[in-house]
Amino acid sequence: MEGLPHQIVAGIATGGIYASVALALVMIYQATHHVNFAQGEMATFSTFIALSLIQAGFPYWIAFVLTVVISFALGVAIERLLMRPVQNAPVLTHVGVFIGLLLIVGNATGWVFGYTTKVFPSPFESEGLLFGGLVSGHELGSTVVTLAVLLLVYLFFRHTPLGLAMRAAAYNPVSSRLVGIRVGWMLALGWGLAAAVGAVAGMMVAPVVFLDPTMMLGILLYAFAGALLGGIDNPMGAVIGGFAVGVLENLAGAYVVGTELKLTVALAIIIGVLVVKPSGLFGRVVLSRV
């Protein structure tokens, strides 16, 4: 148990990545009431764009900002071109579109950028561990970036007119239309913001797990577990759940199940939450009269 403090700190760093993806999942869920199965593939595609920009000679942080902007535009385009035409379709149609999007984006990533595993650079490299061996330079830097992004998203939704309009459109589109909010565009902007947040998560995790078209498959599962644990309809709860899953995964992998079976931790959390408390720790229990 000597390495317990390091495992906790590393779990928090990893949990920040899960929290970002979980937040992106919740943002799409609030707008469509469906889980975007392609969120991981979209983040992977964005990370490959970042690597291409870096290889083209752009400084890391310029490539970072350009990738976020490009990802935002792609998210808006996906909502406009794919999701809007089926917004009133049955549930199975939405599920089919999300699965199709997963396959299309995943295969397009391999076709455009190749299927070989690539090394993604980190701007936070340092010699050895910091703070007495508790955390690496990349873990510390990625945690700071992730927390900064989450804080900016929180402030945007809480304290800007556009953010408040997007929240209103997601919670009650009918009433929002009555007060003049362009609900369709608010949902499109939500997709764009979710894609941008996912891109940040992809760029932060790629130096650790290396970059290939399937990079985000396991991460998406952990993020989904975090979103369910915190509450799939509660953005702040999903963020807390993502951090909790990161710590639990690290501790379980180090002291209980081993690194080879860490993915079972996410599956156990998903099943446990669905059985014991489907609304999550901070989610709302919705009752409907039939």
Automatic annotation (TrEMBL):
It is a multi-pass membrane protein. It comes from the Bacteria. It is found in: Cell membrane. CDD domains: TM_PBP1_LivH_like. The keyword Transmembrane applies. Keywords: Amino-acid transport, Cell membrane, Membrane, Transmembrane, Transmembrane helix, Transport. Pfam families: BPD_transp_2 (PF02653). The chain crosses the membrane at residues 6-28, 60-79, 91-114, 134-157, 185-209, 215-232, 239-257, 263-287. Belongs to the binding-protein-dependent transport system permease family. LivHM subfamily. This is Branched-chain amino acid ABC transporter permease. It comes from Craurococcus roseus.
